Amino acid sequence: MENHDILVRMDALETRCPKLGHQVPFGYCRKESGALPCSKALVCWSHRLPVELVLRKFLGDEAYEAVFNGTPKSRIQVLLEAIEAAKERCGTASDRP
Ligand code: SF4
Question: pTM for this structure?
Answer without folding.
Answer: 0.72
